[in-house]
Design brief:
Blueprint lengths: L4 H5 L7 E6 L2 E5 L6 E5 L4 E4 L5 H11 L7 E5 L5 H4 L2 H5 L5 E5 L17 H11 L33 E3 L3 E5 L2 E7 L8 E5 L4 E5 L20 H13 L4 E4 L5 E2 L1 H27 L4 H7 L4 H4 L11 H13 L14 H11 L3 H13 L3 H14 L3 H18 L3 H15 L1
Parallel strand pairs: 4-5, 5-6, 6-7, 11-12
Antiparallel strand pairs: 1-2, 2-3, 3-4, 8-9, 9-10, 10-11, 12-13
The structure holds zinc ion.
């Protein structure tokens, strides 16, 4: 078992460290899946985002106490994903702390509440696979935009409700910092970015990180608005930031480098939209469109557009489904046979289950893992030689896991392989 070397190298983006961005302004990277930003004033600290676990938040606060002993008085959530809102109680330390979020802030924590009706049970299982929860640190080498090895204690436990919701662009002054808060829909519709004009620092939430944008999350997310996200990159560019402090991965310094990165990010999203629309209008199905879609060479070479987190193919398929729904346009699909029925017919046409099993074994041995899985799936669906088919599928999943640079896919493959053989 050896993960893709580029995915391992991506870990340099979240080496555990507190970066000083400007006098009094810090970003804690690598303690958790996401970053925490701390702005130290004369009498208190403003915190932007709080990580996914109370343990990670405690580790950050404890290290930060060597820099400042002042109390945290204001917390700003850039958006409602739980890796940004779950350590608030730790920073509040029992005090009444102001919590600021966008007026359409909707806590993502409800998505993992199993007491709610379906599909949240499935969503939780898929979330565990995407983030490799319960995989060993050797297996879960990365989250793509955060370290694979990080504290798990207090996951989702330290959330505090917002006390101030921002509707329009607003300038607030807290602890001596004049901060412009602006809504900026992107990875989520409820994004709130923070602009500190004095030192030209932009806290961009998850609208940018050092990886291809996660326009679709395989844990199962509703459609993310591609056009809004791309337009928001123009909004970020207009600030002309000299330091970009994202919600994940290292900060970027230098106006020119930041402008190039934000422009490339925008253009990559728009390229996926344009090429997918072209394919749709040519009457192609989403799988064919995704299989043929590549970023232009210049964009594909950019380090912050590597598919460590999102992928071009998943994005294209999400755009198709978001605009046209599940139907691929082929009338055959309207009455598609259920897998168990199709599998039975396929096996008999192929000369029986033993024949297909042996082809699946050959495919695994030859490294044709995807085809091996597609054959194994028929055996499993028809419940013929299914124990052997599960082993083959698990082997193929582990083989693919080591080939992909996409962390969510790797984690999903590895946890699925374990589930198949348990
Ligand atoms: Zn995040």
């Amino acid at each position: 078992m050896a993960a893709h070397p580029n995915l391992i190298a991506q870990n340099a983006q979240f080496t555990k460290r507190i970066h000083e961005l400007a006098p009094g302004v810090y970003t804690a990277v690598g303690y958790a899946a996401s970053n925490v930003h701390l702005l130290v004033g004369n009498e208190g600290i403003v915190v932007i985002d709080t990580t996914e676990t109370t343990q990670a938040a405690e580790n950050i606060l404890s290290d930060f106490r060597e820099i400042s002993a002042l109390p945290v008085t204001t917390i700003i959530y850039t958006h409602s994903h739980r890796d940004h809102i779950s350590g608030a109680t730790v920073f509040a330390e029992g005090r009444d702390v102001e919590i600021i979020a966008a007026d359409n802030f909707a806590s993502d924590l409800v998505d993992v509440d199993t007491s709610r009706p379906v599909p949240n049970v499935a969503l939780m299982a898929r979330t565990k696979r995407q983030f490799g929860i319960s995989l060993s640190p050797e297996e879960r080498v990365s989250l793509g935009v955060g370290p694979g090895d990080r504290p798990m204690k207090g996951m989702g436990a330290g959330y505090l409700e917002p006390t101030l919701r921002i509707g329009e662009t607003t300038v607030i002054t807290r602890e001596g910092y004049d901060l412009k808060l602006a809504k900026a829909p992107g990875e989520t519709p409820d994004h709130l970015i923070v602009w500190y004009s004095q030192d030209r620092i932009l806290f961009s939430g998850d609208n940018f990180y050092h990886a291809f944008p996660n326009l679709y999350a395989i844990r199962g997310t509703p459609y993310r608005d591609f056009e809004s996200w791309a337009d928001t990159m123009d909004q970020l560019l207009a600030y002309k930031p000299e330091i970009l402090a994202p919600g994940h991965t290292n900060p970027i310094r230098g106006a020119a480098a930041i402008a190039t990165a934000l422009t490339d990010y925008r253009d990559a999203i728009r390229h996926v939209v344009a090429e997918t629309v072209k394919g749709i209008n040519a009457g192609l199905d989403p799988v064919t469109i995704a299989a043929g879609l590549k970023l232009p060479e210049e964009l594909a070479a950019k380090p912050y557009l590597q598919e460590f987190y999102g992928t071009v193919a998943y994005a294209s398929r999400a755009y198709f489904a978001g605009k046209l729904g599940w139907f691929d346009g082929n009338p055959t699909s309207l009455g598609q046979l259920p897998p168990s029925v199709e599998a039975g017919k396929f096996l008999s046409l192929a000369g029986g289950a033993k024949h297909v099993l042996s082809a699946a074994e050959d495919a695994v041995e030859g490294g044709d893992f995807q085809w091996a899985m597609e054959l194994a799936d028929r055996l499993i669906a028809a419940d013929e030689c299914s124990a052997a088919a599960r082993q083959i599928k698990a082997t193929a999943l582990r083989g693919l896991a080591d080939q992909t640079i996409n962390a969510p896919t790797r984690n999903y493959y590895l946890l699925s392989a374990r589930e198949l053989t348990e």
